[in-house]
Amino acid sequence: MKQNRLKYDAAVLSASLHQFGQGQMPPCWDALSSITCPVLLIAGETDQKYRQNAEQMKSNLSHAHLAVVSEDGHCPHLEQSERTGTIIQKWFDR
C-alpha cells in the first residue's frame, strides 16, 4: 500500500482533496437520525478522528454497530483487509 501511495502525483491528490474532500461536503449529521436500516461503521483503532466520528455517528443512528479494527489506522479495508472482511461477513451473517 505504501509503495502505491508513493506513486501518486501530489498535484492530483491536492486537487482531489480540494474538490472532493470532507471540507467540500455539507454536514449531514442532522439527517442520520432518519436512517432506519442497520448500519455497520468500521474505524481503525489508532485513527482518533475517524473513530470519534464513527462513535458520534453511532450515537445518532438507531440501528448502528461500530467495529473498531485493533492495531489499525485510517484504512482498515486496505491495511487489514482479511480482518475487515471477517467483520463485514459476521455483520451480514447476524
Throw out a few tags for this protein:
94 residues, alpha+beta, two-stranded parallel ribbon, 5 helices, globular
Structure notes:
With 94 residues, the protein is of the alpha+beta class. Helix content is 49%, strand content 13%. The chain contains 5 helices and 2 strands; from the N terminus they run H-H-E-H-E-H-H. It has helices spanning 2-6, 10-20, 48-60, 76-79, 81-93; strands at residues 39-44, 64-69. A two-stranded parallel ribbon has the order 1-2. The protein is globular, with a radius of gyration of 15 Å. The mean pLDDT is 89.
Please outline what is shown here:
The chain is α+β, with helices and mostly antiparallel strands.
List the helices and strands and how they pair.
Elements: H1 2-6, H2 10-20, E1 39-44, H3 48-60, E2 64-69, H4 76-79, H5 81-93
Parallel strand pairs: 1-2
Structural class: alpha+beta
Task: Give average pLDDT, whole number.
Answer: 89
Query: What general outline do the C-alpha atoms trace?
Result: globular
H/E series, N to C? HHEHEHH
Q: Give the N-to-C terminal Cα separation.
A: 31 Å
Q: Which quaternary structure do these chains form?
A: single chain
- The tally of beta strands, per DSSP, is 2
Q: What gyration radius follows from the Cα positions, in whole Å?
A: 15 Å
Strand order of the largest sheet: 1-2
Q: In which range does the helix fraction lie?
A: 40-55%
Low-confidence stretches: none
